[in-house]
Amino acid sequence: MSSLSTRRSADSVTSLKIGIAGLGTVGAATIKLLHAEPTHGGSGRNIEVAAVSARSRDRDRGVDLSGATWFDDPVALATSDIDVFVELMGGAEGSALKSVEAALAAGKAVVTANKALLAAHGMHLVTLAEASGAPLLYEAAVAGGIPVIRTVRDGLAGVPIKSVLGILNGTCNYILTRMENEGLTFDECLAEAQRLGYAEADPTFDVDGFDTAHKLAILSSIAFTTELRADGVSVEGIRGIEPADLMAARELGFRIKLLGIATMTEDGVDQRVHPTMVPLGSALAETSGVTNAVSIRGPAFGELVLSGPGAGGDATASAVVSDLTDLARGLAPTPLGRPTSALMPFKKPEAGGHRGAFYVRLPIADRAGAFAALAQRMASEGISLEQIVQKTPHRPDHLPPLQEQTVVLVTYTTDEAALKRALKAIADDGVIVRAPHVIRIAQTL
Amino acid sequence: MSSLSTRRSADSVTSLKIGIAGLGTVGAATIKLLHAEPTHGGSGRNIEVAAVSARSRDRDRGVDLSGATWFDDPVALATSDIDVFVELMGGAEGSALKSVEAALAAGKAVVTANKALLAAHGMHLVTLAEASGAPLLYEAAVAGGIPVIRTVRDGLAGVPIKSVLGILNGTCNYILTRMENEGLTFDECLAEAQRLGYAEADPTFDVDGFDTAHKLAILSSIAFTTELRADGVSVEGIRGIEPADLMAARELGFRIKLLGIATMTEDGVDQRVHPTMVPLGSALAETSGVTNAVSIRGPAFGELVLSGPGAGGDATASAVVSDLTDLARGLAPTPLGRPTSALMPFKKPEAGGHRGAFYVRLPIADRAGAFAALAQRMASEGISLEQIVQKTPHRPDHLPPLQEQTVVLVTYTTDEAALKRALKAIADDGVIVRAPHVIRIAQTL
Description:
The structure is a homodimer.
Chain A: E1 16-21, H1 25-36, E2 47-53, E3 69-71, H2 74-78, E4 84-87, H3 94-105, E5 109-112, H4 115-132, E6 136-137, H5 148-155, E7 163-167, H6 170-182, H7 186-195, H8 204-207, H9 210-224, E8 233-235, H10 243-252, E9 254-265, E10 268-279, E11 291-298, E12 302-309, H11 313-328, E13 355-365, H12 370-380, E14 385-391, E15 404-411, E16 414-415, H13 416-428, E17 437-441
Parallel strand pairs in A: 1-2, 1-4, 2-3, 4-5, 5-6, 8-10, 10-17
Antiparallel strand pairs in A: 7-9, 7-11, 9-10, 11-12, 13-15, 13-16, 13-17, 14-15
Active site (chains A, B): 215
InterPro entries (chains A, B): ACT_dom, Asp/hSer_DH_NAD-bd, HDH, HDH_cat, HDH_CS, NAD(P)-bd_dom_sf
GO molecular function (chains A, B): homoserine dehydrogenase activity; NADP binding
C-alpha cells in the first residue's frame, strides 16, 4: 500500500519553484494570491515565484517581482531551474506552444490557463507529458474559477457520464443578458462589452463560439475518456440572434443561451456549440452576465450543476493556484484522468442525426397564401408545430408599413434534416424575404 | 521532481481489494456501479469487492456477492486481507467507529459515507490515519453525489474562502418545498416524507438540524483549515416553521430554507444551522425537493454554487466510487487537506454577536394598543422596522373569530441580542399570546 501513503517525503520542506510566462491580468492576480497565502493549502511547501517572463519588462503590474529572475524568452524560462512552468501567455501557437513543449520535454510540471493551446495541441502535449512523467494541469482553462476539470476528472472518476453542457463563455452570456434585459441589438451590446473590457477588439473567437468549442472539447475528453479533438465540434455563434428572438423566447417560457453540449451517443460523442432555448427557471437560464454554469448528467447521480465566475483575473488565478497547490502537496493527477493508452479514439456521430424541438423565425412576405404555403411545407416533411405566432414588427407612424411579417414556429421533436428540407422548400417557394433563423430548444435542461 | 511523477508503479496492475461493511441502499448501489464500469477511471486497476459484511446474510440485495468473503463482524472485515475498508453502516459509535479505527490502525485505506462518525470522532480518526499513513476519504459524507469535499479541499486549495453555506439535508428541503407548494403543515409533510422513505421513523436527526450540522462541521474544517469540531455549531431545525411563515416569506420576496452557514470571522469560525430567508431567484431559493446546493465564497473567485442530488443510493454510491477510483489511481489526498499539525485550533466566536435582518412572527392579542406597545419595545432597542404586516388568520364562517392576530415584522440589520431583549419585553408586556417565531434573513445569498 505504499503508493497510497499520505506521508510526505523529505523534499516537501523545500520550495516549489515556479516560473510564470505572461504577466497580464491573470499572471499578476496569481502572484498576488500566492503572496497572500504563504502556506498554500498546508502543504508545508512554499510556492516561490522564481522566474517570470512577459513582453514588456518595464510595465508596473502592481506586484513585487524583485525576487524573480527575468527572462525575455519564455522558452528559456520554461527550461530554467524551476519545478513548474506556468503558461499564462495565451495563443494556440508560437511562444505558448514552444515553451510548454520545452517545459514538458524537460520534465517540468506545466500549469496553463490556455484552452486554445489545449484544443489545438492537447493530445500532442499530453503525450509529451506522459513520456517525461511531467504533470500537465489546466483547471483555469475551462470555466475560469469553477473547478469543473477536477469535478469531472476526480469527483466523478469511475462514474458513467451521459452529458456535459453549459455556458462556457462569459462574453456571449453578457451580450445575451444585456440584449434581453435592455432590448439592445447584438452590435450595440458587443460594442458595450468591448468598452467594458469583456470582449476583445476582434470578438470572433468569443461570439462565433470557438472559445466555447475549445472548452467543450477539453471537458468532453475527460468526461467520456476519449481523445481530445476540438475539430469534432459543430459550432454556431450568437451573431444571428435578434432582440425579437429573445422576446419570443421569453413569451414561450425560455431564455436563449450559447451552450456547449457534449453527449455520449451510441454512435460516438456529439459535440455542439449553438444558441439554445433553455426553460426559464432552470439553473442555466438563470445564469446571467459573465457567470458560467456547467451541468453534468449521468444515470447514477442525476444532474450536478456548478456555477461561478467564468473569467476575470482573480477567479482564473484561483484555479491556477489550486493546480499549484496540488503540485505542492505532491499530488499529480494524470492530465486526462487516465493514460492516453486507455483513452477511446474520438468518434463523431454521423451528421444530421440531431433530433429535437426547434424555434424558427421566418420573415415572410406579407401576401395572401404565404402562411398556408409555409404550413404545407412543414406538414409535407412530417413536422408538427407546437406553436405558431405571427408578428408584425413595430414601426413608427410616420414610416410606411413594412412589406413583411415575422412568423415564429415552435416544432415538436423532429429531425434536423427534415426541418432543413422544409426550410429550403419554403425559401424556394419565395415565401420568405430573408433567411430564416433556427434555434434549438432544450426541453429537459 | 520524483514526487510529482504521473508514472504508475508496477503494483498498479493488481486489483484494489475492497471490503464493504453495510449492504443497504448505498452499499448495494456501490457494488452495482463497480460492476458496471470495470476499468474504473482508466487506472488500469480493477476494483474488486473482496469481502462484505452486513447484519443479515440472507437478504437478497439484487447484487452478485458470490466472489466476496462474508464476515459477520465488520471489525474482522476491516483488518482482513483488503486494501480498502468501505464503511457504509452508519452511526457515530459502535461497529462503525470500531471497524474504522481498526482499519486505520492496520494501515488500511478507509472510504466512508458516515458524517455522524466524522462529526463525532473526526479528529481522532484523522490522527489515526496520519499515524499509520492510511488514506481516509469521505466524499459521500457531505451532500451525497455533489463532489463538494474535493471542490473545497482541492479545487480551491490554497485559495482563501470567506464562507461556505448551503442546503445540506434533503429531508428538510423536501418538507419545506412541500409545505410551501401545497400549504401543508410541518407534521403533514413529515408524515408524507416518512411514507415515501425520505425521512426516518425518528426524524430528529434530520428535521432538528443535526445532520446539517455534522456536514457543515466537516466542510467548515476543510474550508477554513481548522480542527473539525461539530460541537461548535449552533443548531435550530425546522419544526417551528408554519405555513404562514412560508407564505409571508414569499410575499416579502424570500423563500425559507434550512441552511448550514460557516463563516470565517475575525473572532473565529461562526457555524450555524437555522431556517433562513433567501431571496427568490437565488440559486439556493430555487433548489427544491431533495436536491442539495452549496455556495462557497471568497475574495478571489466570488461565488461558486454546486447543486445536485444530496442523497439516494446511486448518487451517494457515485461519491464512494470516486474515492475508490482516486485510490485505484494511486492518489491519496490528505484527509483534511493538510496535516493535522498545520490545522488551526477551532475557535468559536463569542455568542450573541450575530448581526443581520430578521423576520419575526408575533401572535398578538387582538386588543387596542397591542400594536403600539410592540412597536415601542422595538424602538427602545434601536431596532428599525423595514416592513410591518398585520394579518388576521382565515377562519371558516361558522367558527367564532380568533382573539388573536398575527403581526409580521421585518427588521433592518440589528443585533440578535437587541432583538431578543425586545421580544422578551414584548412577552412580559402580555402583548403576545404565544412565543414569537424568528427567522434570519440572508440579504446577499
